């Protein structure tokens, strides 16, 4: 009996205890492991160490000779497994801001306290030693207090300590049945503990991927609000900008908004419906060449209270809701589309930096901009189609029930009963406050401008207001020093992105500019009313100039030669 031992085997799916003996061979032991975990004999490898060193080979050596003792932990990795808990995936290209923050010290340095510190100038004590970026007492004593640590502070907390994150892992939640389980018929005829997704208990997320949202200037927001002011209908737009360091919070990230793109949409006073946007890919491409990326979305929820003084109703508050369940689901959908690359996740992504901004009435009955994200748990529920809105209660969601077409794991949340005790409830219905993370939204004291022009270019997709992007495809400053184009590409994009006037002048001397000047000399003198428009607002060209004409998209984007350009519906040159 003294020869009997228990060996623990840790796999990506959990740990199991394998009974064995000291005299058992490694080959016989590996067969037991294969049977217990449901692998064939060549479908996995077992190691003495988590970093995949000390592999146990199928051989006739006994476990005692391999120095495997009672209670030892071995580590199993399936063949082809891309990563393991705590293993860094160096092939994942993270965002620039993540790469930058990963190299920063992140510690919170404090000066010597003249009353409490009793040491020399070079010494340190508990009253002045640097704090870790995830220190909760420090975050709670900031003004205003910070409820959520930054994501990179959370990573430092996971990877800190004596083990240096050896056992840390960023696991994306899955609400779907694992595929490949052959021990029973597929759902709904069968399910087992190996393939069944775990139940989910919703917790308020302790970290957030973005710590601040900042619009570069008030003009960006004011022009977006003009649509509501003129029509009374709500409006939605995508936020384009960049992610930078937010220095008010240790290792924080800020989403800086430089522009708002308003896609095609149908809007009323109480609803918004997005329409397929054929130009979405072109917008993203041009923005990327300007150093801008889609960082979030914004929508209005405004009702006038007194038009004489310009006040709006205060409708979103603690007595109603901050985001409705339907808006949470939409935010989760967008966040899943724009997942966050992460080297510490075996899926190569974890969470999202995509933010949600609501323009709504505040306590002072003025327009306020409120920023949010939804939690990673909400993203998983939305991705796997497990969450529904409630028709008559916008502040409540509803976790779907299992059906023959889909197995849905149980979803719970904790709350206090009337006696003050913590009680677990089934999430049918579910208060969406468990899914929401609030983000401070600000405007700088000194306005910033990625795009500066004395003339305002018409905003896209506002035909209902009679505002169209007319055939003039460019603007001059009065000093003719900087060019602004409806479609700007290549060298000119670099000039705008870097505010390089010499580069703009170089572009002015190029063949592209000569083509535009020739176009202007041909059609520029005609009134816009004499020019027809194509399907998307492109100018139809008089017969006299049709031989030389091709739109900027055709000429400069080097699109494949087809009969007509998808951007302007004109014949290719």
From TrEMBL:
One of its Pfam families is: UN_NPL4
Q: Name one GO cellular component term.
A: VCP-NPL4-UFD1 AAA ATPase complex
UniProt-recorded Gene Ontology molecular function terms: ubiquitin binding; ubiquitin protein ligase binding; zinc ion binding
Output one GO BP term.
ubiquitin-dependent protein catabolic process
Q: Which UniProt keywords apply?
A: Acetylation, Chaperone, Cytoplasm, Endoplasmic reticulum, Metal-binding, Nucleus, Zinc, Zinc-finger
Role according to the record: The ternary complex containing UFD1, VCP and NPLOC4 binds ubiquitinated proteins and is necessary for the export of misfolded proteins from the ER to the cytoplasm, where they are degraded by the proteasome. The NPLOC4-UFD1-VCP complex regulates spindle disassembly at the end of mitosis and is necessary for the formation of a closed nuclear envelope. Acts as a negative regulator of type I interferon production via the complex formed with VCP and UFD1, which binds to RIGI and recruits RNF125 to promote ubiquitination and degradation of RIGI.
Q: Which family does it belong to?
A: Belongs to the NPL4 family.
Return the protein name.
Nuclear protein localization protein 4 homolog
């Amino acid at each position: 009996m003294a020869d009997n031992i228990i060996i623990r085997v840790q796999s990506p799916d959990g740990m199991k205890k394998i009974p064995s003996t000291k005299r058992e061979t490694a080959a016989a032991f590996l067969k037991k492991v294969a049977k217990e975990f449901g692998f064939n004999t060549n479908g996995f490898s077992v190691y003495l160490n988590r970093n995949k060193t000390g592999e146990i080979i199928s051989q006739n050596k006994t476990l005692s000779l391999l120095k495997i003792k009672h209670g030892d932990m071995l580590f199993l990795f399936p063949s082809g497994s891309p990563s393991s808990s705590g293993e860094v995936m160096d092939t994942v290209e993270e965002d620039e801001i993540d790469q930058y923050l990963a190299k920063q010290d992140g510690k919170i340095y404090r000066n010597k306290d003249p009353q409490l510190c009793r040491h020399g100038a070079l010494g340190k004590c508990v009253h002045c030693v640097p704090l870790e970026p995830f220190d909760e007492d420090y975050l709670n004593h900031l003004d205003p207090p910070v409820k959520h640590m930054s994501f990179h502070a959370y990573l430092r907390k996971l990877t800190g300590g004596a083990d240096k994150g050896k056992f840390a892992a960023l696991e994306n939640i899955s609400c779907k049945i694992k595929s490949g389980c052959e021990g029973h018929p597929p759902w709904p005829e069968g399910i087992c503990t190996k393939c069944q997704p775990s139940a989910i208990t919703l917790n308020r997320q302790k970290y957030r991927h973005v710590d601040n949202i900042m619009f570069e200037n008030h003009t960006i927001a004011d022009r977006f609000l003009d649509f509501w002011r003129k029509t009374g209908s709500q409006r939605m737009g995508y936020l384009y900008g960049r992610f930078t360091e937010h220095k008010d919070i240790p290792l924080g990230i800020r989403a800086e908004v430089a522009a708002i793109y308003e896609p095609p949409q149908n809007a009323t006073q109480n609803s918004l419906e997005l329409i397929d946007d054929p130009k979405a890919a072109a917008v993203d491409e041009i923005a990327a060449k300007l150093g801008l990326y889609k960082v979030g979305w914004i929508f209005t929820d405004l009702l006038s209270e007194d038009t004489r003084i310009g006040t709006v109703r205060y409708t979103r508050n603690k007595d109603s809701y901050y985001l409705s369940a339907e808006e949470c689901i939409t935010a989760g959908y967008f966040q899943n589309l724009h997942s966050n690359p992460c080297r510490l996740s075996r899926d190569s992504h974890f969470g999202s930096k995509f933010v949600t901004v609501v323009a709504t009435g505040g306590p002072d009955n003025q327009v306020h901009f409120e920023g949010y994200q939804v939690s990673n748990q909400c993203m998983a529920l939305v991705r796997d189609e497990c969450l529904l809105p409630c028709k008559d209660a916008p502040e409540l969601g509803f976790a779907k029930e299992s059906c023959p077409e889909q197995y849905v794991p149980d979803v719970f949340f904790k709350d206090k009963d009337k006696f003050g005790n913590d009680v677990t409830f089934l999430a049918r219905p579910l208060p969406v406050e468990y899914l929401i993370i609030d983000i401070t939204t600000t405007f700088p004291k000194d306005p910033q401008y990625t795009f500066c022009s004395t003339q305002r270019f018409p905003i896209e997709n506002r035909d209902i207001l009679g505002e169209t992007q007319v055939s003039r495809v460019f603007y001059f400053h009065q000093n003719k020093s900087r060019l602004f184009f409806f479609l700007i590409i290549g060298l000119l994009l670099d000039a705008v992105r870097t505010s390089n006037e010499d580069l703009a002048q170089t572009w002015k001397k190029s063949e592209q500019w000569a083509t535009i000047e020739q176009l202007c000399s041909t059609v520029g003198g005609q009134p816009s009313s004499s020019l027809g428009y194509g399907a998307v607002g492109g100018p139809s060209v008089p017969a006299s100039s049709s031989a030389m004409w091709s739109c900027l998209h055709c000429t400069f984007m080097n699109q494949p030669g087809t009969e007509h350009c998808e951007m302007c519906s004109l014949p290719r040159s």
